[in-house]
Design a protein that fits this description.
223 residues; Rossmann fold; two-stranded antiparallel sheet
Length: 223
């Protein structure tokens, strides 16, 4: 078993781009690397997740409670693990990169609950995914911190450039703000490495974010 790194953050924080940069960098340095991204939109495992995000279970995120929604995302991870990346995870001297992981449930679904239930939800979530379902826990979780108002601008920019419709999470600024507060709580409680992906009221250069990530993970071969 090698190293398993999960990269998370609000929508628009740049986590997908940074995950891709990390994969490319490690490959250039001869590391055996595999990248996974959740939800697994190209796999059947994400069918129920897509129904939820497309609004088929309700047009507002709170229409599906935190435990039910978390189970949908967790099952996507479980199915993809047993059918796709389980063998790679067992390989020595390798690096597995996850663009979103269990931490995404903590970021987004935790925010649906009253604050006095946050600790019990996190205990349930990580026991459910890592113990009950038996999917592996990351060695390192990176949280790219992006202020909600900047994230909304980045989401709108991406939608304009790609033509992709926003899902029920992305088009709800109030939900995004609650998710940000939940993420700060979870990252502090669970010991995630927080890296700012903004400076002032603007997004930070992703090359700078990436360099901070390399240092945090001890993967900077160029030093």
């Amino acid at each position: 078993m090698g190293k398993f790194i999960a990269i998370d953050g609000l929508d628009g924080s740049g986590k997908g781009t940074v995950a891709g940069m990390l994969k490319e960098y490690l490959e250039e340095h001869g590391v055996n690397v595999y990248r996974i991204s959740f939800p697994m939109y190209d796999n059947k495992s994400s069918a129920l997740v897509k129904m939820y995000l497309d609004g088929e279970m309700g047009q507002h995120p709170d229409d599906t409670n935190a435990y039910a929604a978390s189970s949908l995302f967790a099952l996507d991870r479980y199915v993809s693990f047993v059918t796709d990346w389980k063998s790679f995870y067992s390989e020595p001297d390798s690096v597995l990169i996850a663009d979103r992981y269990t931490s995404a449930n903590a970021v987004h679904q935790l925010s649906k609950l009253p604050r006095d239930e946050w600790n019990s939800f996190l205990s349930w979530l990580f026991d459910f995914e890592y113990q009950k379902l038996g999917i592996p826990a990351p060695d390192i979780t990176i949280f790219l911190e992006m202020k909600p108002d900047i994230a909304m601008r980045m989401i709108a920019k991406r939608a304009g450039e790609t033509g992709r419709a926003s899902d029920i999470h992305e088009k709800d600024p109030e939900f995004l703000a609650r998710s940000y507060e939940a993420a700060l709580f979870a990252s502090e409680k669970l010991g995630w490495i927080r890296i700012p992906s903004y400076t002032g009221n603007e997004p930070r250069a992703l090359r700078e974010v990436f360099n901070d990530l390399l240092s945090a993970c001890g993967l900077n071969f160029d030093i």
